[in-house]
């Protein structure tokens, strides 16, 4: 009986010794990171597909052990910029994970793919964005065997576009029909603006806010004013209007024209050219 107890204790000690030895045998490191694909820099809010960055994490270690990669974001999966934060998702080659704080990715053939995805429709103002992702390599015994900080640096370029709603061309002609003193003409095409930053719109008239007769030129002229979003402005000099970036990056500016009082005008065609230009706001 005494011998059996001694033997049982010896077997227990040996078992503990071998288990501890197994924990100590797993040794590995993150050898390198390969960049596979990146179109985050080209992301625009109005695009119809996701943008993403893909990398491959390659490890080197004891092949008798299995490993997995634990991934966490310093900013809770948000690319932080000066004016806003852009949410993004972390995934692998087969799926995108929910926005939990930690993701565990299996290591197969000493590699695993990692994706950082900005979903289509996300609001993204032009600017610089950063986040830091911690990669923790663990063994099957949940021991940390190596770790690495991977920095995400994304630059969203400025995008500004201007067009007439419903027109493919950058130029369009408007026929006001009969010119009536002090009449307001509202059946004009709207300006369509797409921008991911604050913008300045410059408006100027070729004839300084006058409709000029086709033959007599400035000898017969009709003054008029232009309304943008309901507010009339005089075009006797170049006008500048500032529009601040909002979550609606694609917006419309309705246009209206109102003629001044006039009389004894020569019959014929009157015309003017109004030019619109948008550019990023300079601070």
TrEMBL record:
<keyword id="KW-0732">Signal</keyword>
<protein>
    <submittedName>
        <fullName>Uncharacterized protein</fullName>
    </submittedName>
</protein>
<feature type="signal peptide">
    <location>
        <begin position="1"/>
        <end position="24"/>
    </location>
</feature>
